[in-house]
What does this fold into?
Amino acid sequence: MNLDFTPVWQGMSGLLHGAVVTVEVTVAALALSCCVGLLVGIARLDPKKRIVYGIASTYVLFFRGTPLLVQLFLLFFGLPQFNIMLPAFTCGMIGLGLYSGSYVSEIVRGAIQSIDNGQMEAARSMGMSYGQAMRIIILPQAVLRMVPPLGNEFIALIKNSALVSLLTISDLMHEGQKIIAISYRSLEVYLAVALIYLVLTTIASQILRLIEKRLRVGGMVQ
Amino acid sequence: MSAPEMTPNAKPILEICDLGKSFGSVRVLHDISLKVMPSQVVVIIGPSGSGKSTLLRCCNCLEIPQQGSITICDKDIVTDGVVLPEKELNALRMHVGMVFQSFNLFPHLTVLDNVAVGPRRLRGMKKADAEDLARAQLAKVGLAERADAYPAQLSGGQKQRVAIARALAMEPRVMLFDEPTSALDPELVGEVLQVMKALASEGMTMIVVTHEMGFARDVADEVLVMDGTVIEHGKPEEIFSNPQHPRTQSFLQSILSPG
Ligand SMILES: Nc1ncnc2c1ncn2[C@@H]1O[C@H](COP(=O)(O)OP(=O)(O)OP(=O)(O)O)[C@@H](O)[C@H]1O
Ligand SMILES: [Mg+2]
It folds into this structure.
């Protein structure tokens, strides 16, 4: 077996650029996913609010029940039929964000429901509205419980983002494939790409551990 | 703190008329009527499952009774299942303090913030003013020096005293206590009862569900015995020394000589 990493070294700046794009699309998608997830998670708290609950549940059903790649292709190749042409990066961000949002919404809902009902009752009996009680009392406690599963979601998102290379986005995966196209060194290049993904996910999990530690110092000694 | 100044010719602070409440097909409360005058302390006793908590929770619409009406400070908060509009209800709840068996302090806030959060967010007070008020209320329950602690660092008795301070910081017209000492170790019950006694002697209007017969005897103006409805009511000495209803007799016997 002869391994030749020269193409990797020669293409390193391209790979690093790709890594930056991967981080960008992932962070943008995570921001979208958290916003959507928060709204959908709250919308799914009360099945008695039929319409809101129904819309939110349909969203979760679709985005959790279909492949991410199909969702990305629908956005990128499907929408142009309605004359909606989104830039590839935007498609990637929205696709990843909506997909991940369906999982985040379950994280949000689970965390909120895990807060003792007495908290809501105490807040309401002081005269807080439902929204105030949510914002001031429930969510700050729930967020702490969301952090570890959100961390896992973030790491999954980094890895899933490799699929956006199929939308012509020049992410890490795409840059790797470009090098392979001219050098035919698949093994070496994919190993290098895997290693860079590993570095990204490791950094992400370290950051998350730090955040968790910070939040715990913030007084939630429960 | 004394509540009565707005009601010179002594209108009731809280009035309940022919209240009825069911959970599904199970009727938990029926035909309950009650008047609580300013500065009055009403103690509610009764066996487990007799609807004491439900009655208290109806008084601030945490539960909605299907029949009858509840009037607080001249406002009908609920009439035959129709509740006051959300905004007015929230405004009225500020005047009704509630203390829970399980404290329900906010674990992510310091003791000071637990007490200050209401004045700050609901009464529109400035941060510094709200904190001053909170410190004053904490001093009143003997916990001024624990202002910076988190609830998890307190004993049960201290937690309940913070919960009382939190309710007091809203300057309520009436306070509802649902078995405030039942979750406490016996040696911590006294400190909470003492705070409640002090409140009563300052003229706070109180409705207290409790099994502390000593407290009822010393502090209550009236004792209600419940079993789905009010089966007996009167001065504590009458109820305790000369109970009329056979179910009152057996209930008193069961708690005065347990086991
Ligand atoms: N949310 C609810 N849904 C259904 N049934 C309920 C609910 N809350 C209370 N009940 C029922 O209503 C009855 C009265 O309950 P409640 O808690 O008011 O009694 P209690 O007198 O406070 O009892 P305890 O001394 O045990 O606290 C009980 O039979 C209880 O099972
Ligand atoms: Mg009860």
About this structure: The longest strand of chain B covers residues 26-36. The two ends of chain B are 41 Å apart (CA to CA). Chain B has two domains: 36-64+86-95+173-258, 103-171.
